[in-house]
Amino acid sequence: MKIVRYASESGPVLGRLDGQTITPFQGVADVQALLSNVAQASGAAVPLDSVRLLAPIVPQRNVFCVGWNYLKHYDESKGKREGQEVELPDRPTFFSKLPTTVAGPHDSVPLHEAYTAKLDWEVELAVVIGTEGRDIAEADALGHVFGYTIANDLSARDLQRAHGAQWFKGKSLDATCPMGPVLVTADEIGDPQNLALGCDVNGARMQVGHTRNQIFSVARVIAELSQGLTLLPGDVILTGTPEGIGAARQPPVFLVDGDVVECWVDGIGALRNVVRAGLCYAE
């Protein structure tokens, strides 16, 4: 099943997407409510091209993220981390982004030019947890997944380096996590380690990768994260980005006003966001 969330005069609506038609869920406004209730998509059909899509889910707590989860991405940044060089970890590197980073799949997003001169792109497969769990065994981990979507972990590289090697500030500027366009349930994706993904900027291919090249699989990430930490229904986990980020290029390339960033994952679709100077929030 493909799930979308869209704006209406009465507020956000959650629906099932079939082709170019959305069937709303009755009495359910978000994925968290869907996970806790048995609900059927039975409302009056709505054409997809008649609505503004929102992020399919806004988590109720921070977005969990994994750094350095593709070897070529780790390698491309060697010597470019501005005093934050580390050996390749033998366990996942976790950080988080605030819920206020979440933006829609087609929104214009802020350049944040007053705060950063180095806004960068990162396409990622995002995991949505469906079943609560703690100390989850790797063999059982995918059974806790409700579905998958796409995220762009927009990152202010200068701020990422400026706060004691803690990435939180540089990763948490408002509207720096576009997500969508749909949430695809786990049964339709099957193996999350069999998905191509990539990112284009102004039509130029910047990133191409494949989840089979993740250092830590989705199941391993969930198992490690859940050790002593309860994962809740509706939690979102970003699983890392492949090589091709702007900061690692020679010379480095960063986003500017008017850039169009498109992130795609096989079987899910694509985000398309325009970066705009002068914005504080997504529009």
From TrEMBL:
To which protein family does this belong? Belongs to the FAH family.
Q: Which GO terms describe its biological process?
A: carboxylic acid metabolic process
GO molecular function term, any single one:
hydrolase activity
Q: SUPFAM superfamilies this protein is in?
A: FAH
- Source domain of life is Bacteria
Q: Which cofactor does it need?
A: Mg(2+)
The record's listing under Pfam families reads: FAA_hydrolase, Rv2993c-like_N
Q: Which organism is it from?
A: Achromobacter pestifer
Alphabetic keyword roster: Hydrolase, Metal-binding
- The Rv2993c-like N-terminal domain, residue ranges: 1-56
- Domain Fumarylacetoacetase-like C-terminal: start-end pairs: 63-276
**In its UniProt entry, what is this protein called?**
Fumarylacetoacetate hydrolase family protein
